[in-house]
Write a structure and sequence with these properties.
5 strands, two-stranded antiparallel sheet, 114 residues, single chain, alpha+beta, 3-stranded mixed β-sheet
Length: 114
């Protein structure tokens, strides 16, 4: 795959997910972070949520490497979360990888409110 097309695939997923956060009402200002890691926001999505999002739109998923990248970007101030979209699938079929503590916190909130 040409680097140009890999970059384009990544941007497509990032734009889609930022729109999804806005659509769900989770952050009306969520947007793709241009040059992610170089500005105030270290993840791929600039958001007010206390989570650093690292998005991967690739066939080969390297969980350990990507989780470390997200944790490094979170710099200990936020939770780290990796979203993976396998090419050829609808965007809605992305998978989420996060720490057990974040997962448990989300379960507590969800089941208290249901």
């Amino acid at each position: 795959m040409k680097p140009q097309s890999a970059i384009a695939k990544g941007k497509l997923f990032e734009k889609w997910f930022a729109e999804r956060l806005r659509h769900l009402g989770l952050d009306p200002n969520a947007r793709r972070e241009i040059g992610s890691g170089s500005g105030r926001f270290k993840g791929d999505i600039a958001t007010s949520l206390p989570i650093t999002f690292e998005l991967k739109n690739t066939a080969n998923f390297h969980a350990k490497k990507y989780l470390k990248q997200a944790e490094d970007a979170a710099m200990g101030y936020q939770e780290a979360c990796v979203l993976w979209h396998p090419p050829g699938k609808p965007m809605e079929n992305y998978k989420v990888f996060m720490s057990a503590s974040l997962f448990e916190s989300l379960l507590k909130v969800f089941f208290r409110n249901s």
